[in-house]
Amino acid sequence: GGEPHRAASRSATCSAAHHVPGEQPLASPPDASAFRPEEGRPLRGCDRSPVLRGTGCHLKDFGDLSFTPVPKDDLYNNLIVNPRSVGLANQELAEVVSKAVSGGYSCVTVGGDHSLAIGTISGHARHCPDLCVIWVDAHADINTPLTTSSGNLHGQPVSFLLRELQEEVPQLPGFSWIKPCISSPSIVYIGLRDVDPAEHFILKNYDIQYFSMRDIDRLGIQKVMEQTFDLLIGKRQRPIHLSFDIDAFDPTLAPATGTPVVGGLTYREGIYITEEIHNTGLLSALDLVEVNPWVAASEEEAKATAVLAVDVIASSFGQTREGEGTLSMTNFLLTR
Ligand SMILES: [Mn+2]
C-alpha cells in the first residue's frame, strides 16, 4: 500500500518550502516546521517568485508559516502520529488560505507533506463552499485513522474532508475545528497506482471518481482531462482546488519524494494536466506537496524534483510550451 513506506514527518509540514527557484540552494534541508503559502495571480517581475515570472500575474507572498509542535503530542489510538501538532498547524493554515482566497487571489501552498491539504481545502472551502478538488497523486490518501496501518496523517487527509465518510472517522485530538467540506462527487483523482485495500474499498463504496495510471494508459491524458472536467464542471462552473503530489510523476522525474512508486506520469502528461486546468480559468487554489530533498540520493535528484515542481506551478498559472504573442504583436507582424 501507499502509506506504510512514507518517511514519517514530524508535523504537517516539511520539504519544498524553500525551493522556489532562485531563492535557496535546492538541496539545502528545508525547515521542517514551515510551509510557504504563496498567493498569486502570480506575477511579472516579482523578485520573490521568479517561478511565476512571465505568466503575467500579480503575486502576494505570505512568506513561510512556522508551526510550533504541540508538546507531549501522544499517539492517538497507539498509532496516529502527531495528531495535535498536525491538527493545529492545519487550523492555522486554513486561516491563511481562507484570507488569501477571500482577498481575490488564487492561493498557492508549497509543502510539506500532503496532510496540509486538510488545512488548505478547509480554508478554501470557507470562502468557496462550491469548490471541487482535482487530486493528482500516486496514492489516494484516503485511509481513515481506523484503516491506516502506518499512522501517518499524510495518508489520510481526504478522509477528514469528505462528508460521506464522517461516520467512519473518529475525532482526533486537535481536529475538532474541522468541518468536512466536500462531497464525494466533487473530487477526482488522477495518477493512482498504489492504493491500499481499505482505500480501494472506500473509493468503490462511496463511488469516488478516479483515473488510475491504467486509465491514463487506456484513455490518454487528453480524454482523462476532458472526463475530469465533465464530472466536476460539466454542469456548472466552480472553483477548482488542485492538490498536486509530486509523487504522481514517475520517480525517474521526481526522485526526491517520500513514497515514490514506479510507473508514474510522464513530464508531458503532468504538464498537460496543469495546462488544461489553467485553461479552464477556474483554478482557485493549488497545493504542491511532497517534494523532499532530504530523501534525495544526490543534489541533482533534489534539484530535478524541485525544478519539476516549479514547472507544475508555473504551468498551472499559464506558462505554456508553445510560447505566446499579443494581439498588437500579431498586428505588427501582419502590417510590417
Ligand atoms: Mn499525496
From TrEMBL:
Domain of life: Eukaryota
Region entry Disordered, spans: 1-47
Name under which the protein is recorded: Arginase
Record's keyword annotation contains Transferase: no
Catalytic activity: L-arginine + H2O = urea + L-ornithine
SUPFAM superfamilies in the cross-refs: Arginase/deacetylase
Enzymatic class: hydrolase
Enzyme Commission code: 3.5.3.1
Pathway(s) per entry: Nitrogen metabolism; urea cycle; L-ornithine and urea from L-arginine: step 1/1
Similarity remark: Belongs to the arginase family.
Cofactor(s) in the UniProt record: Mn(2+)
Cofactor note: Binds 2 manganese ions per subunit.
Gene Ontology BP, a term: urea cycle
Keywords: Arginine metabolism, Hydrolase, Manganese, Metal-binding, Urea cycle
Oligomer status and interactors: Homotrimer.
Composition bias, Low complexity: 9-19
Any one GO MF annotation of this record: metal ion binding
Basic and acidic residues bias locations: 36-47
